[in-house]
Amino acid sequence: MKNEKSYTEMMKARGRMKKKDQVRILDIYIQMIIDEAVFKRKKDILEEKINDAIDSRNQPLFYELADEYKKLLTSAS
User: Fold this and answer.
1) Is the Cα torsion angle 26, 29, 31, 37 positive or negative in sign?
2) In this structure, are residues 66 and 47 in contact, taking their beta carbons and an 8 Å threshold?
């Protein structure tokens, strides 16, 4: 007799593989949500700092923050 797995064993193994795939997909989805939240928070903070620099007429700080903002946006796309 060959060393073959029964149908039941194969189906159990397939079920475990499916669960592992679902867990991996869930992990990826969770990471995407976290990354998006971090990106939005950084963007909001930079926008607030840029507005403060404009209000205080601090041109060098404005340019520095604008460059940082631009880098953030290009890294996201």
Assistant:
1) negative
2) no
pLDDT digits (tens, 9 = 90+) for 31-76: 999 999 999 999 999 999 999 999 999 999 999 999 999 999 999 8
Does pLDDT of 5 surpass 80? no
Alpha carbon separation from 62 to 14, 18, 54, 57 (Å, rounded)? 57, 51, 7, 8
Residue 10: how many other CB atoms lie within 10 Å: 11
Q: Which residues contact 76 (CB under 8 A, 6 or more apart)?
A: 39
Tokens of 3: 């060393």
- Euclidean distance between CA atoms 75 and 53, whole angstroms: 23
The Cα 26–Cα 61 span in angstroms is: 41
pTM over 0.85: no
